[in-house]
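Why does residue order matter? Because the sequence determines the fold. Keep that principle in mind as you read this record.
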Amino acid sequence: MDYVMSTPESDQIVLYGTTWCADCKRAKQFFGEHRIPFENIDIAQDAAAMELVEKLNGGLRSVPTILFPDGSVMVEPSNADLAHKLGLQT
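Structure:
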């Protein structure tokens, strides 16, 4: 899922996830391997972050929910989806 959120732009990718989520670990590994800076926020430790994830996902706690500097949001993206979004070759 990829759509634009109407909030002030951040200068960094923000990944909302949990420590136990395999897709979150995969997305973090993808960013690390491609040296893409990002902020990781554990929604289990941050009630406001959990509320935002639920708001963005129609009440669901779908993770990873990833916000991009351009205001777009991706939920549970594949590595190919991330590469396409970031203009990387796969």
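The CA atoms of residues 18 and 85 lie 22 Å apart.
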